[in-house]
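re: that chain from earlier
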Amino acid sequence: MPQSSVICSTHPEAETRLSGPSLRAFLIKVVLIAFLLRVVGMVLIHSYRMKLDNDESAHIAASLASGQGFSNPFGGTTGPTAWLGPVYPFVLSGFFLLFGIGTRLSVIAALLFNSLLSSLTCVPVYFIARETFGERLARWSAWAWALVPYTIYWGIRWVWDTSLSALLFTCLFLFTLHLAKSSTARGWALYGLLWGVSGLTNTAELSFLPFAGCWICYRQFRQGKPFFRNATVGAVIFFATLMPWTLRNYLVFHKFMPVRGNFGVELHLGNTPDARGMWQVWLHPTQNVLEFRAYQQMGEAAYAQAKLHQATTFIREHPKHFAFLVFAHFCYYWAGPPHAERYPWLYEVKTSFFFASSVFAVWALIIALRQRLYAAELYLLLLLSYPAVYYITFAHPRYRHPIDAELLILIVFWCTQYHASRPVKRPPHAAS
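^ sequence. v structure.
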C-alpha cells in the first residue's frame, strides 16, 4: 500500500534519529508522564483498595514473607507450590516484608512498582519502532504506550506479573532485533539470561524463544556471519538460569517441572464437556471449595496430574467439541472474552476497541509484509507463536498484554498508512 508524504521515509536510515541528550530528555519525559498518568489512574479508580483474597501470587508472597517458603497459593496451609513462576512472588514478598502482608500500604507499593514497570516499557517500545519503522513512528509509539488507557490499566489494576512480563518481553523483542545485526558471545549470553528471567516470570513467553532464536541465526547466516558458537553460549546461559528452580521443583515434587507444574489445571479449566470457550473460573480452587479440598488432600502435583488426565480424556473422546473450543479460544483471545460490566454499554465499547486493535495490528502486519519491511516476518512469528498455548487452554485479556507493545507499534504504523501516496523503500540492512 502506498504511503503519505508525511511518513514517506519510515525506515531507520531515512530520518534523523534522536541521540545523546535529546534522546535521553525525550525518553525521560515520556516515562515520567506515563508514570504520572498511572498514579493518577490508580487514585481515580481506587485500585489501591483491592483485596488480595483470591490472588495466588499474593498468597505465595505472604508465605515467603512469613517464612513458610514458596507455598500455599490459595491461602491456608497446603504446602510447597510450583503454581507460578518464582520471580514476581519473590518481588511482592519484599513489599510485604517492608509494609506488612496484604496491607493497604503494601498494595500501593506493588501498584506503584507495576506502574513504574509499565512506564519504563516506553523505552523498548521506542527503540523497537525506530529499528523497524523509523524515528517519527518510534516517538508516536512511545507516546501511545504512555497515554493509551488500555496500556495504563494493567499496571494499576492487577497485583500480578502482567506489567513485568510485558517489559521483559518487549526488551527481548528489541534484543532479538539487535542480535540479528550484531551478534556477539556476550550479547547472546545476556540474551539467554534475559530469556531465563522471563521464563521464570511468565512461562508462556518461552513459546516465542525458538522462533526468535532461529530468526536471529537465519539473519546471521544470510549475512555470512558465524552464529553457532555464540548461540550455544546463549542456550547454555538460558538453561543455567532455569536450572536452580527446576532442581528445586524436582527435589520438592519428585518429578520434572521446568518452571511451573499447573498446566493440567489450566488445560482443564478451558476444556470440559460443559465448556463453551470461556475460562471456567468456578472450577478453580480459589472459587470452588470442593476443588480446593481436593487440591489440599491430593497435593499439588497429583491434583494437576488428575486434571491433566481429565482434560486429555475429554479431548480424546470429544475431538469436535475440542476443535470448537480451540476456535472459540482463538476468537476470544483476539476479540476479548464475554465478561460482566456494571454498565452494558461499557462492555460493548471495551470489546469493540479490543477487537479493533487486533484487526488493525494484523492489517498493518500484512502491509509491512507486502512492503517487505525490516523484521516484518519477526512480528509475524510473534503473532503466530505466542498466543498458541491460550488457544488450547483459555483466553483472558490479560494474556495478550505481553505482546501489546508490538501490536501497538503495528497499529501506529497502520495509522501512518491511512493517507498513502507512495510505497516505502526497503531499508538497506533488510536486503536479503
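The chain has 19 helices and no strands.
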